[in-house]
Recover the amino acids of this structure.
């Protein structure tokens, strides 16, 4: 009987040697005349354990990690194909505390299955939600999504059901569903991992959205920095088309839905929904003034659902298990689960999906294990380049939309980036302004010019020039950018800057740390 | 990576399957760059004529996006992520070390090797991250990226 070995084909795992590990295991098996079937799954999200090799045993999938190419021979010596003990043994994958402490809902198949096996996908609940959806009216589907409390996972947190209803109610000869997969925030990778590990979930979510509002065309705007995700999603779309999940008749229904991947070209601001629409139309990624809302006049002027990958990927399970089961998780108005991403200077980085309301401390200490360097944790940036820098006094904050806003930050796309005590927050604040200057689309003055003036002013503070006056000037500039910018790029760049000043005042006294 | 030299005939062939694409300009520029490694100046008027848009529109798109380049691609390209998560694990120091070893400045144009700033490859738990000739490198260091 052939032993079944799972080795991830996720780009992060490959970046530290998963392909070499897979090749060596195949070679070694031949050398030892052992019958081994290698399945390339996505990552389970424990990136600190990559390359995570799993073997199917009668007890379940048994894990070994992190496996280096040099470990392969000793794994065979330890008879890992039968679950043998080895210094890298982690026991049954499901029982590893890091996984057992999570609540995988949107990510339930991520890392478990072969990403391009529609059979695997269906065997673990795939297409149940879409089958339910095609038997319902558009307003019934929208009501279910609304009742789930699902909010936009891209960062804005707008209720998905309300957005969908606006598109449903907008009369038009053509409607679109667009997935924003322009995951440009540093410290975030949940969209990429989902697309690489379980692309059919996104496809199914988009198909449900299309069926709900009567859209027949869909686009995934995927960033060029994610070449593996681009290839995998295109492959998955082709498989879904030939299986009748997509195309002129979705699962044999009267609904047509065609899906296309469009690749970005290295512009951060194209993650802003109206800039994304411009880019999808082949133009410069300059933001549009709102109104009109994209739900009324979006892509090519037609009513358009625009949601983040995780928002759309949450929908199949909401439809399959019901809104109530989803809404039973979470806290306050932050219902369901959030896929947090632990990143930066962290010992155990990766994906933590759990209900809203977990504390920052549980995330960074219990799951994350503190800093990678072993030095004291000094700062945590939550929510990407436009998110706030927190200090250790904030570790008790509940990770949900409202609590983070009350603490002077934002959840954003759920990225959590750790910094040890070597970080200089004045430099980080300056970088925030420089990044805004680099990526500003240029449409509005506070963002286009304010970012450059902001970087210059912080440089003066660092150099010790008129520090009190320049700090006042910087705060004034931040106010203008916050209140006067057209979109979140200029509007939120002051968030990392001001939070750094507030939470780390000792770094803004002039002179290098 | 080696690319064929610019030819208007070949570019025309590259663009012909895109005739029916809605909003074609960015896709057309990306297709030309994929074929030739960069966007030759003559591609601007070719795309404008092919898709019945103004040269100004094409020029505007070409100069907006970081990915699109107007000079031939270098033989080797090392992109290093310099965004926050990679900063926290030493990407600034990595950039300085690579610049020193190769004797090149980041984000300047060279024919042989270019070092480019990148802003996130989505590999933020295994930083610093780099992309060397299209291959993602996790836990990047001087040896790995200049090997």
């Amino acid at each position: 009987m052939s032993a079944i070995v799972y080795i991830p084909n996720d780009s992060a795992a490959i970046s530290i040697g998963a392909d070499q590990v897979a090749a060596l295991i195949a070679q070694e098996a031949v050398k030892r005349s052992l019958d081994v079937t290698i399945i390339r799954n996505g990552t389970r999200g424990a990136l600190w354990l990559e390359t995570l090799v799993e073997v199917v045993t009668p007890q379940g999938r048994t894990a070994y990690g992190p496996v280096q190419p040099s470990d392969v021979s000793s794994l065979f010596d330890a008879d890992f194909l039968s679950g043998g003990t080895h210094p890298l043994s982690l026991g049954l994958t499901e029982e590893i505390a890091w996984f057992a402490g999570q609540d995988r809902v949107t990510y339930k198949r991520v890392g478990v299955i072969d990403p391009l096996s529609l059979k695997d996908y269906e065997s673990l609940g795939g297409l149940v939600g879409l089958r339910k959806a095609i038997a319902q009216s558009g307003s019934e589907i929208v009501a279910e999504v609304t009742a789930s409390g699902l909010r936009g996972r891209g960062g804005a947190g707008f209720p998905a059901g309300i957005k969908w209803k606006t598109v449903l109610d907008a009369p038009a000869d053509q409607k679109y569903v667009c997935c924003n997969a322009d995951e440009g925030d540093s410290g975030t990778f949940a969209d990429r991992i989902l697309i690489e590990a379980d692309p059919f979930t996104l496809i199914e979510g988009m198909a449900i959205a299309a069926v709900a509002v009567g859209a027949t065309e869909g686009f995934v705007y995927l960033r060029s920095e994610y070449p593996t995700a681009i290839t995998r999603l295109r492959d998955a779309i082709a498989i879904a088309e030939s299986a009748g999940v997509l195309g002129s008749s979705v699962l044999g229904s009267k609904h047509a839905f065609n899906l296309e991947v469009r690749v970005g070209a290295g512009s951060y601001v194209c993650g802003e929904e109206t800039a994304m629409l411009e880019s999808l139309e082949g133009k410069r990624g300059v933001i549009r003034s709102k109104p009109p809302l994209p739900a009324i006049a979006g892509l090519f002027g037609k009513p358009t659902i625009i949601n983040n990958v995780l928002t759309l990927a949450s929908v199949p399970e909401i439809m399959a298990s019901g809104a109530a089961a989803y809404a039973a998780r979470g806290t306050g108005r932050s219902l369901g689960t959030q896929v947090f991403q632990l990143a930066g200077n962290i010992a155990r980085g990766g994906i933590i999906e759990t209900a809203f309301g977990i504390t920052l401390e549980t995330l960074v200490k219990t799951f994350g294990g503190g800093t990678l360097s072993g030095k004291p944790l000094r700062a945590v940036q939550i929510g990407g380049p436009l998110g706030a820098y927190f200090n250790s006094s904030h570790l008790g904050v509940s990770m949900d939309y409202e609590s983070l806003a009350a603490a002077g930050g934002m959840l954003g796309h759920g990225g959590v980036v750790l910094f040890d005590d070597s970080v200089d927050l004045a430099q980080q604040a300056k970088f925030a302004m420089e990044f805004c200057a680099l990526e500003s689309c240029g449409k509005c003055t506070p963002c286009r010019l304010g970012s450059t003036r902001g970087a210059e002013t912080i440089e003066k503070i660092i150099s010790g020039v008129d520090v009190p006056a320049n700090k006042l000037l910087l705060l004034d500039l931040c106010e203008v950018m916050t209140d006067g910018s057209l979109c979140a790029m200029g509007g939120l760049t002051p968030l990392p800057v001001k939070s750094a000043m507030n939470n780390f005042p000792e770094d803004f006294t002039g002179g290098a740390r | 990576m080696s690319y064929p030299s610019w030819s208007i005939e070949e570019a025309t062939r590259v663009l012909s399957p895109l005739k029916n694409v809605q909003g074609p300009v960015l896709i057309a520029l990306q297709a030309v760059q994929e074929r030739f490694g960069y966007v030759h100046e003559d591609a601007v008027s070719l795309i404008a004529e092919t898709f019945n848009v103004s040269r100004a529109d094409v020029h505007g798109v070409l100069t907006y996006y970081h990915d699109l380049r107007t000079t031939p691609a270098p033989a080797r390209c090392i992109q290093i992520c310099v965004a926050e998560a990679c900063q926290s694990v030493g990407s600034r120091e990595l950039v300085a070390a690579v610049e020193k070893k190769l004797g090149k400045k980041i984000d300047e144009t060279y024919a042989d090797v270019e070092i480019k700033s990148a802003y996130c490859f989505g590999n933020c738990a295994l930083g610093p991250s780099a992309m060397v000739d299209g291959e993602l490198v996790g836990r990047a260091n001087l040896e790995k990226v200049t090997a």
Q: What stands out?
A: Residues 479 and 494 of chain A are 8 Å apart (CA to CA). The two ends of chain A are 62 Å apart (CA to CA).
